[in-house]
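Protocol step 4 of 5: obtain the predicted structure for the target chain.
Materials: sequence only (see below). No template structures provided, no constraints applied. The aim of this step is simply to have a reference model before the mutagenesis design in step 5. Sequence pasted as it appears in the construct record:
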Amino acid sequence: ALWCDGRWSRRAEYLCRGFAGGEKREAGGRQLTVVSWQRAAAALGKFVKVTVIPTITAYPWGAPGHCMGALVDELAEAGHEVQWFVAPIDLENPEVQRRKARCARFGVLPPPVPNFLRWSAVRRWIWTWQAGKKTLAGEVNAFAPDHIFVNQGGMLCALQKSYAEVLQPRTGAYSLICHLNHEGTPRSGAELQQAQQLLAGAKVLFVNSAYMLDLAKVQLARDLPNARHYHLPHRFNFAAALPWSDSPDARIAFVGRLDAFHKGLDLALCALKELKDEGKRFRFTLYGEGPDRE
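Step 4 output (structure tokens):
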């Protein structure tokens, strides 16, 4: 719906996921630098140790998971030694099982230390010892990676304590992959400073939309020159326009969670309205459940 009749919808220009990696491409009148995972893997040099960590633990394998799996493939193909963590909910997924043999180290994301613990230096050690739990920072430090990729659901998920402990000592030696950003109350004080440090400290801040990046700049009140748009590796090719049906009444469908903001349904409707205004005839049907069903 968003790439119809040979061009991007102006209202949906920020969904710049259909470009070959590493080139300057135009979308919605803007010049975007788009990077593929193959180029990202090659840019690390030869045969380094790389850790890949997700922050999405409540939702099963989807587009962010497929994106992370494609990154693991390219890192392994380039000869890098890969440590890969997956969320417990994804452990038995066939996409995960197929790839785990390519990794030097593979494991389940350790659970976070409970937030209610105070005097963290002492009680954290006691909790870890009694429960026999491994911490994320401990496992990453034992592997001693040269670079870390964090596959985030939101722009600032890595501010969570277990991730911050991994990244704070490694300024310039980690990259953040961002799948979502949303409007919210402005950050201030220490929270704003932590967010600025997290994004500015990344070697590369990978975003999948110009809208997401523009919103982050406003939220953080600073430029983000380390940001790059990345090619989201779906299973089909968006390098050319999708063919328009020869039928006088084309049928277009959406299948998924009915969540307008997360899934971009508001933008799909805007794009389809432009086609309707141009005289195109079609029927748009939505299938699914979710908070915006009504």
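Step 4 remarks: The longest strand covers residues 30-35. The longest helix spans residues 63-77.
Proceed to step 5.
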